[in-house]
Amino acid sequence: MSAEKRNALGKGLSALLNDSPSVNQNKNITQGSSVSETNSLGSISEVKISEVEVNPFQPRTEFDDQALADLSASIKLQGLIQPITVRRINSHSFQLISGERRLRASKLAGLTQIPAYIRSANDQQMLEMALIENIQREDLNAIEVALSFQRMIDELKLKQEELGDRVSKNRSTVTNYLRLLKLPPTIQVSLRDAEISMGHAKALLAVEDPATQLYIHQQIIRQGLSVRKVEELVREIQQAPNKREGKQPESLTFQMQKIQDDLASKFSTRVKLKVNTQGNGSIEIPFLSEDDLGRILEMLDW
């Protein structure tokens, strides 16, 4: 992220806070959590870790165990360099606004107290600060970003353009992330776990049929297809004979379509369900090789 964007985002966060304009002006670190609320707002204080509740609005769901262990080891040697940010609940209770990774690592390091900025924020500001801080992180995966964007739209009642302004991203970028949430859950998990890239996911979004998306996704995993190869495969599927000749496949009822989609998800391949007006039909499950056939037969307990 450029310095200009970071500055713009920093100003946005400051505008959300009701405490003093510059925390850096207060160089005194107060000890313990018994300091008065009035004097501690906007300051850096040492608070008891046992008195810090996690942020219920935290959008981040995945924390790398090894990264936490590395940070914990660093904290043991050098202490915590960047304070966490909390809001006061009562005289002996705080709620985390940002810094859950630092809080977790400090607990692993055996610390009983942790330096913290004490701020004033309502629930909506808590949510927005937590989301924006996480979106800033470079290691946040695409699905976490997309879910954070969607939460800001749903819970803060923002339009996509307004959201873009809040997070210093253009509207098309915001739209591309939100579209990821339209992909089947299997593909979203694969993107979250870095089995496929954002480029792969964008190529899959060009396909409307979820079963076909799952079929292509399986080929990406099995064959290690590049984004360019996936784009070529998508074009080939879109130019299939039925498409070129204007023939439309027989329409399925909602119930049958759901069955077809569920089967495609179960077998991780494109499944075709054909049903005639008398209720008779067939199920086609294609396979790519003898190994692929063996995998399907094993799932069928053959």
TrEMBL record:
Keywords recorded for this protein, A-Z: Chromosome partition, DNA-binding
Q: Where is the composition biased (Polar residues)?
A: 17-38
Spell out the family assignment given in the record's similarity comment: Belongs to the ParB family.
**Organism expressing this protein natively:** Mucilaginibacter gilvus
Protein name per UniProt: ParB/RepB/Spo0J family partition protein
Q: Where is the ParB-like N-terminal domain?
A: 45-135
Pfam families (UniProt xref) = HTH_ParB, ParB_C, ParB_N
Would you kindly state one Gene Ontology biological process term found in this protein's UniProt entry? chromosome segregation
Write one Gene Ontology MF term: DNA binding
The portions of this protein that span the membrane are none
